[in-house]
Amino acid sequence: MASPLVFIDGDQGTTGLQIHQRLRHRTDLQLVTLSAEHRKDPQRRAEIINACDIAILCLPDQAARDAVASIENPAVRVIDASSAHRTHPDWTYGFAQMNPQQAQRIATARRVSNPGCYPTGAIGLLRPLLEAGLLPRDYPANIYAVSGYSGKGRVGVQEYEGEGASPPPAFQVYGLGLEHKHVPEIQQQSGLSQPPMFVPAYGAFRQGIVLSIPVQLRLLAPGVDAAQLHECLVRHYLDAAHVQVMSLQEAKQLTHLDPQALNGTDDLQLVVCANEQTGQVLLAAIFDNLGKGAAGAAVQNLDLMVAEI
């Protein structure tokens, strides 16, 4: 059998470039991209996407929708790294560790939507706790996150690393209209009944994320404590590749969380910090926004899908 033909559409951006770098030396795949003169040629794009086995779309949302609309070959499978299809009912959400069945769903799916970077951390923390009933579905979730400036995409990298670039600001909170495009994705895929409040920020570093969600135990069912929340996460991710839950003992020794601690990996680390006297808990996730938050997740999904060809 011939190696699967994988088309990376948008390999010049931060996610597409990383995916291409990860796959270019693999002998079990055939890679194809658009040449510079054909990147804005819809006819050439349609020809290639209809001839491939799996297309990985690293495009703006509308361009991703247009690319999918051009598919006439029913055998073509798609991984969309944009946010265009993350809440679409006909697309499989590409977070393989989200539940025990998700990896198999991805493996056999025709259309897979790669998770957003921030939602990966938020859903990774919230969904197991909501499904277990430890957090009520209507919990007023507040999500705070800081990412490296590569979260802006190629524009962000050029702004602070390109010719004539200026140093990045130490810290910038954005999304002040409280309508960030990741909010519907987080709500739907975590299982919250109400939109969470999401406050994102950029730091003066290239990549990496720390995302945190404060929890007030007084708002939970009587008897629910930090140890139960932690044990639920441990059970959920016990056999999950690329997701680790820090022990409570180790978490007690922490003095800070470093958003760059897992850079260069495809791992997601979850942390539960607690103050027993005040009844306050901090749920946190640490990961590389270009690893588990983007390219790493896409390659994991690709490997699951290729295994089914």
Short description:
Keywords: Amino-acid biosynthesis, Arginine biosynthesis, Cytoplasm, NADP, Oxidoreductase. By secondary structure, this protein is of the alpha/beta class.
Keywords:
32% helix, globular, 7-stranded mixed sheet, 6-stranded parallel sheet, 2 domains, Rossmann fold, oxidoreductase, alpha/beta, EC 1.2.1.38, single chain, AGPR_type-2, amino-acid biosynthesis, 309 residues, Dihydrodipicolinate Reductase, domain 2
Your description of this structure?
The protein is α/β, with parallel strands linked by helices. It has ten helices and 13 strands. It has a seven-stranded mixed β-sheet with strand order 8-9-7-10-13-12-11. A six-stranded parallel β-sheet has the order 2-1-3-4-6-5, sandwiched between helices. The chain is globular. It starts with a strand and ends with a helix. The mean pLDDT is 95.
CATH superfamily of the largest domain: Dihydrodipicolinate Reductase, domain 2
Total count of strands: 13
Distance between the termini: 10 Å
- Would you identify the CATH architecture of the largest domain? 2-Layer Sandwich
Instruction: Indicate the low-confidence ranges by residue numbers.
Output: none
CATH fold-level assignment of the largest domain: Dihydrodipicolinate Reductase, domain 2
Order of helices and strands: EHEHEHEEHEHEHEHEEHEHEEH
The SS-based structural class is alpha/beta
Using the coordinates above, name the CATH class of the largest domain: Alpha Beta
Major β-sheet annotation = 7 strands, mixed
Approximate strand percentage: 15-25%
User: Radius of gyration, rounded?
Assistant: 20 Å
SS field, number of helical segments: 10
Helical proportion, percent range = 25-40%
Cross-sheet strand order for the largest sheet: 8-9-7-10-13-12-11
The dominant shape is globular
In total, how many domains does the architecture comprise? 2
What average pLDDT do the residues reach?
95
